[in-house]
Amino acid sequence: DINADYRFFFKKRNANPAPDGLYWGPYTSLYNLNFEGKSEIYENDVQVNTVGIKTDFYMYNLGMQLGYQFIIKDRLAIDLFLVGPSYSHYNFNVQFDSDVALDPASDFYQDFEKILSTILPGSEVILDNVDFSTGGRAKFNYVGYRYGVQIGYKF
To answer: Which of 19, 45, 51, 66 lies at a C-alpha separation of 20 to 30 Å from 129?
Structure first.
């Protein structure tokens, strides 16, 4: 994961000099998540199939943020990202390799979607119309949002 931002501090609004106080600025972030594994399918306690799974998830964000940074005792920085809308580009690939052809209506695909939604929150909404029953790719643009807390050290 790579994140970068640039900050403009409100000089007239803030009581202390930068980097302490309210700020705004552009940010960008890049995330990449890869997974490769195998799943064994059982019926009546007998293994009937082995499915290889390979996924690659990529997300790029470009946006603007508003935040507040506290400097405590001239060294400890606590940074709050308050509002950060973004333009986001997503690219998701999945490949299945099985010993026996899988039925698209099988429990395997439903379970895969459940697991995917726990790893990538919101994926059930974004990937709603994508059929990954034989593997495939989804590329799309969406509105993203950044918020969070960072703790750092001021040099």
So the answer is: 51
pLDDT of residue 145: 87
User: What's the pLDDT score for residue 132?
Assistant: 65
CA angle at 68 for the pair 66 and 74, rounded to the nearest 5°: 145
| Gap between the Cα atoms of 152 and 7, Å rounded | 16
Query: What is the predicted pLDDT for the residue at 152?
Result: 93
* Cα 148 to Cα 133: distance, rounded to the nearest angstrom: 35
Tell me how far CA of residue 76 lies from CA of 69, 70, 72, 123, in angstroms.
10, 8, 5, 36
* Cα–Cα distance, 71 to 14 (Å, whole number): 12
Distance CA 50, CA 18 (A): 57
Task: Report the predicted TM-score, pTM, of the whole model to 2 decimal places.
Answer: 0.74
Residue 114 amino acid letter: K
- Enumerate residue ranges in the chain where pLDDT < 70: 121-122, 125-134
The alpha carbon of residue 32 and the mean position of all alpha carbons in its chain are separated, in whole angstroms, by 8
Neighbour tally for 102: CB within 10 Å: 16
